[in-house]
Write a structure and sequence with these properties.
Elements (H helix, E strand, L loop, with lengths): L3 H16 L3 H6 L4 H18 L7 H23 L9 H21 L9 H25 L9 H16 L1 H20 L3 H20 L3
Helix pairs in contact: 1-3, 1-5, 1-6, 3-4, 4-5, 6-7, 6-9, 7-8, 7-9, 8-9
Keywords: Membrane, Transmembrane, Transmembrane helix
Organism: Geotoga petraea
InterPro entries: Phage_phiKZ_Orf197 (IPR021737)
């Protein structure tokens, strides 16, 4: 069973690596060291603030510093190999995030769980919402192999983000809303709405992930 505190680590990662990663940072962190270091600083601040007041503990603070350094090492791997084809594929994107998630899981097992401002249930719901909104959307974009620059689909973000919240409060409403979301998307996709077709896969996967992850 996944440790509850893991979702707090996941939330901090998603906030630092996705929510607060602007298009400028995403574009230049692989080519400009100053931008990469700014990104790493945002990662650390995201963790430090979310883990307050436990992050004031010296042992826990050291773990957060180590985790930040590991994040830097993973990103430097891409920074050093940015011109190699393998490091710009969807497969490497999955591997990159797998390394990040693995480091989060390991540290979550040894983190001293003292006191937190944020509730674990809330952290789980929000982290899964952000995971659906950002990670799943970008994953489908990468596997599609589009040559167009990635653009944030805020409507899609909102739909996928809302799923864990709805599921947390009502299984019945979740099933109803999920059915409406998917059927409406399929209907619009048949009308050759390209943007809707692109959204169908991420939405369907988000429904499955939410259903398997949120239990009340």
């Amino acid at each position: 069973m996944v440790n509850n505190i893991f979702f707090l680590f996941l939330l901090s990662h998603l906030i630092g690596d996705y929510v607060f990663q602007t298009s400028y940072i995403a574009k230049y962190k692989v080519s400009k060291l100053s931008v990469l270091l700014l990104h790493i600083f945002i990662i650390f601040i995201s963790m430090f603030l979310l883990f307050l007041p436990s992050s004031l503990n010296l042992y826990n603070l050291l773990l957060l510093v180590i985790l930040t350094f590991v994040h830097l090492l993973i990103d430097i791997l891409k920074y050093k190999n940015r011109d190699k084809k393998m490091f710009n594929t969807s497969e490497y994107y999955v591997l990159d995030q797998f390394m990040h998630f693995s480091s989060l899981m390991i540290v979550s097992l040894i983190y001293n769980q003292t006191e937190f401002f944020i509730n674990f249930d809330l952290a789980k719901v929000i982290s899964l919402g952000l995971f659906n909104a950002y990670f799943i959307g970008l994953l489908f974009y990468m596997f599609k192999g589009s040559k167009k620059a990635y653009k944030r689909d805020y409507l899609g973000y909102l739909l996928r983000f809302s799923l864990p919240i709805i599921k947390y409060y009502s299984n019945t409403f979740f099933l109803i809303f999920s059915l409406i979301f998917v059927l409406t998307t399929i209907y619009l996709a048949k009308k050759n709405e390209e943007s809707i077709k692109i959204e169908l896969g991420p939405l369907a996967m988000s429904v499955i992930i939410t259903y398997l992850s949120i239990w009340r």
